[in-house]
Design brief:
- It is a single chain.
- The chain is of the alpha+beta class and about 140 residues long.
- The protein contains three helices and eight strands; from the N terminus they run ββααββββββα.
- The longest helix is centred in the middle third of the chain and has 8 residues.
């Protein structure tokens, strides 16, 4: 079943994890780091196309969480300050939240999002409260 598919790509330092069912096709990955992410090729992730730090920086920009990474056990994390949580209203698209947030669902379930998350603004997402790219299909303006 495709919606449960998870792919992993490792270079020995980091492993990039791709969950296609979460992808909203923002194009940030391949427009930002085409030497690693190329949707026209198979496999579409070329983990040796850039440094681990460059890949991490690009994966951190993924608005849906479809791309994530884990450091392989022997690799120490790079020193960096944790950025403040920010919210960006994208033109004709989702709210992009960058930073850590605790999300409490209507049923009381809580989840922590530590990277970038795209929240639906158009009201048409099949994965509410998250964006699934429906704004493009429906011609949302806002």
């Amino acid at each position: 079943m495709r919606d449960k598919l998870t792919k992993k790509y490792s270079n020995g330092e980091i492993t990039v994890i791709w969950k296609p069912d979460l992808c909203i096709h923002s194009t940030l990955c391949w427009k930002g780091l085409g030497s690693v992410f190329n949707p026209k090729e198979r496999p579409w992730v070329k983990i040796d196309g850039a440094t681990s730090d460059q890949i991490i920086a690009q994966v951190d920009k993924c608005p849906s969480g479809a791309l994530s990474y884990q450091r392989d056990s022997a690799t120490p994390p790079a020193e960096s300050a944790k950025p403040a949580t920010t919210v960006e209203v994208t033109e004709n698209g989702p709210l992009i939240l960058t930073g850590s947030v605790t999300l409490r669902h209507a049923n009381g379930q809580e989840e922590v999002r530590d990277r970038t998350t795209a929240f639906c603004r158009c009201g048409q997402s099949g994965k509410k409260p998250f964006c699934d790219g429906s704004h493009t299909r429906t011609g949302f303006k806002g």
